[in-house]
From TrEMBL:
Belongs to the ubiquitin-conjugating enzyme family. PROSITE patterns: UBA, UBC_1, UBC_2. The active site is at 122 (glycyl thioester intermediate). It comes from Stegodyphus mimosarum. It comes from the Eukaryota. SMART domains: UBA, UBCc. This is E2 ubiquitin-conjugating enzyme. Residues 191-229 form the UBA domain. Pfam families: UBA (PF00627), UQ_con (PF00179). The keyword Nucleotide-binding applies. CDD domains: UBA_II_E2_UBCD4, UBCc_UBE2K.
Length: 229
């Protein structure tokens, strides 16, 4: 009699755990499935869209999964980024479209709202202004628009934002140089490469030299002091 009661209690406990498992992981599976189905639809929308082709935005699947994508946007005309192509890393959470995708720039870029170190982006629709009605196309077009209209008062990179506000022409030249160096934009005449080479001759890595000079508005003496002090 006691053994039967003990056995019955164990069955109840297992069932209870199983129900909990179904609740937690079942909900996660449903959410993940919603995310994948939604992204599949949005992926096709971008691939087939005439607007996307016209604006030069594109997206590819990474590792045969719709939760990891590679985006690409062209630098907008009449900006320092014109002629460059910028690669994006896009990660889709299980809670999509109720939460935004996680996006960062893989291509290095000089922009007040994008970290020159990590590629992290400060854009309201990727944070608290996201809405479930927004799509992958919305994200790509919004990021392209951000390249044309920076928000220096809400920066991701304080050094770049400071230069943008205090010396707009120097910012444009620097951003253009970065687009040339990292995004394949056309070359333009400047003494920036010569200054980078001088630091490289001192044993400084090329990218590190570019960052130091950019942060010092291409003042070689200040950049050298920053690197070696």
């Amino acid at each position: 009699m006691c053994v039967c009661k003990y056995y019955a209690f164990n069955l109840f406990t297992v069932d209870d755990k199983f129900l909990h498992y179904l609740t937690v992981y079942g909900d996660r599976w449903i959410m993940a499935n919603i995310a994948v189905q939604r992204i599949k639809r949005e992926f096709k929308e971008v691939v087939k869209s005439e607007e996307a082709a016209k604006c030069a935005i594109s997206v590819e699947i990474v590792n045969d999964t719709y939760t990891e994508l590679k985006g690409e946007i062209a630098g907008p005309p009449d900006t320092p980024y014109e002629g460059g192509n910028f690669i994006l890393e896009i990660k889709v959470p299980e809670t999509y479209p109720f939460n935004p995708p996680k996006v960062r720039f893989v291509t290095k870029i000089w922009h007040p709202n994008i970290s020159s170190v990590t590629g992290a982006i400060c854009l309201d629709i990727l944070k608290d202004q996201w809405a479930a009605a927004m799509t992958l196309r919305t994200v790509l077009l919004s990021l392209q628009a951000l390249l044309a209209a920076a928000e220096p008062d809400d920066p991701q990179d304080a050094v770049v934002a400071k230069q943008y506000k205090e010396d707009p022409e120097m910012f444009k030249l620097t951003a253009r140089h970065w687009a040339q160096a990292y995004a394949g934009a056309p070359a333009f005449p400047s003494d920036f490469d010569d200054k980078i080479k001088r630091l490289m001759d001192m044993g400084v890595d090329e990218h590190k030299a570019r960052v130091a000079l950019s942060s010092c508005s291409w003042n070689l003496e200040k950049a050298t002091e920053t690197l070696f002090s």
